[in-house]
Amino acid sequence: MAQKSVLPFLLFILTSPAQTQAAPPPASVKEGGFWSVQFENDVWGSGDDRFYSHGTEVSYLSLNPPEWLMNAGRLLPFFHTGDVSAVQFSVGQSIFTPEDTVASGLLRNDRPYAGWLYGSAELLSRYQDGPNHQVGNVLGITLGIVGPSARADQVQNGFHDLIGIDKPRGWQNQLKDEPGILLTYTRRSQYHHDLPGGLEFETAPHVVGALGNVYTYAGAGMMLRVGQGLRNDIAPPNISPGFPGVPYLRPSTGVNWYLFAGLEGRAVARDIFLDGNTFRDSHSVDKEPFVADVQVGFAFHYDSMRIAISNVWRSREFEGQAGHVQYGAINVSFFLPD
Q: Under a CB-based contact definition with an 8 Å cutoff, are residues 140 and 1 in contact?
């Protein structure tokens, strides 16, 4: 997922800004792919280097999923195929640190050091397509490694050396190596509303579930968007766990922009980055069973590129946590022809 995986969605592929009737993507975008680069960092949010410290994810989406993958999706009763489908591949890394990064000893009441290096594949399909209402779903699998082999300590310490700031001193206490697997399913609806002055408003509720030794949770949320050209766009991607989004954007000769804000709540049964290793003794803390995210941001879309900047507030994830998590996110998505 991650939420990272798996964090994402094609779902309801879009319409021209001059129409309310949803239309399939033009043939030209099927002759290329959509790329996304996502950076998330707590320094852009809270200004501190703690908790969820950093995430990077690179994704590629194609509107030509292989037929064998579509057939596999049709075998699952809860995954619905429709008029537009896609496949998305992602690679990423997430880094977690305690609040106190100065101490070198084990901080039993603080978040464990941990890294997560992963790759994911997702099958996406829009299966309801009305004039102002679309529904789609995403089925994903994520494979990766937690622990020293994720190389989170080398990445973080190398970056701190590069910018000339102190390095976290407790990486020797990080979680041990463990292969990770994550299965995810997301369903999302979009309701479009035309406003005076050429503006549009969208409400987009979603439900999500994840099962695996890295994350196991169930969640639901809502994203609101207001601006211009919403039918040419979908909310930008996030690293899982987080709000669903997708690299897809309909190439446009004009300027599109929108403000977005969302709320998601999750009931968490498993979080390896708090619960510790599954089959080996490791540092762990008592996690909170319910976690909420709030995201606000701005997106600018011109031609075949979108830039989105947002801030995420996350409620306390473990007992005794000193304050909530806050981080900023920057996403660049663009289309490249074959």
A: yes
Q: What is the mean pLDDT of residues 213-219?
A: 98
CB-based contact 33:60 (threshold 8 Å): yes
pLDDT(328) > 90: yes
What is the rounded CA–CA span in Å between residue 174 and residue 242?
A: 24
Please list, in sequence order, all residues whose beta carbon lies within 8 angstroms of the beta carbon of residue 19, skipping any fewer than 6 positions away.
231
Residues 6 or more apart whose CB falls under 8 angstroms from that of 282 comprise 112, 175, 176, 276
CB 145 within 8 Å of CB 130:
no
Q: Are 142 and 184 in contact (CB under 8 A)?
A: yes
| Residue 132 DSSP code | S
**Phi-psi domain of 147 (left: phi exceeds 0; alpha: psi -120 through 50; beta: other):** left
Please state whether 151 falls in left (phi above 0), alpha (psi between -120 and 50) or beta. Answer: left
Token reading at 314? 């996350």
CA–CA separation, 322 and 101 (whole Å): 14
pLDDT of residue 300: 96
Asked whether the CA dihedral 325, 53, 238, 5 is positive or negative, the reply is negative
